[in-house]
Design a protein that fits this description.
The chain has 184 residues and is mainly alpha-helical. It contains nine helices and no strands. α1 crosses α2, α1 crosses α6 and α7 packs across α8. The longest helix has 26 residues.
Length: 184
């Protein structure tokens, strides 16, 4: 029985990822989750109390995997600059991944306070990964620099998702900002 519930929950999360990736927040409804998984709508409520609860669990499940991929890329780098480059490149490479797209699809304003706090904490952990490398590069305030760097990455994510420019061009521009500032 526990295994069946676990499989159903996983199927619901997978359906939620797909719905969010395909149609954003409007697509994530309990009737749509029920249809995608073959469950009755009332059964979906046995697993999740709200859309926010679905997204919160997606963040809990997917964000650590995503952060581990960024950390692994950084570990392969041999210099502080290489770590910064890996931090930026890996996050931007993951933009097309539906795990990432699903989490980004819902704005923080649509989540309850608990869900927003969990997402903030997860992002804080991501930012913390780069502080040491920025310190090694000579930043007097590496934590502040890390927060600003993440702002550049977040802006680049939004540009890639808009499709206004080629992802490679956005990535190179973000790397330039990260490593050389606005000098060009």
């Amino acid at each position: 029985m526990a295994e069946h519930r676990s499989m159903q929950r996983a199927a619901l999360l997978d359906a939620a990822r797909s719905l969010l990736s395909e149609g954003g927040t409007e697509a994530l409804t309990f009737p749509a989750l029920a249809e995608r998984t073959g469950l009755a709508r009332s059964s979906v409520y046995e697993y999740f109390r709200s859309r926010a609860a679905v997204v919160e669990e997606l963040c809990e499940v997917d964000f650590p995997v995503w952060a581990a991929e960024v950390a692994a890329a950084m570990e392969r780098a041999v210099s502080a600059e290489g770590k910064v480059e890996a931090y930026v490149r890996q996050q931007l490479a993951l933009v097309g991944d539906r795990r990432h797209r699903a989490v980004v699809a819902i704005s923080a304003s649509e989540l309850d306070t608990g869900a927003r706090e969990k997402i903030r904490a997860a992002h804080g952990g991501l930012v913390a990964m780069i502080v040491e490398a920025l310190g090694e590069m000579g930043h007097e305030q590496p934590r502040l620099a890390a927060m600003l760097l993440q702002g550049v990455v977040d802006a680049a994510v939004r540009r890639i998702e808009l499709g206004a420019e080629e992802p490679a061009a956005v990535t190179e521009a973000a790397l330039g900002m990260a490593l050389r500032g606005v000098k060009g």
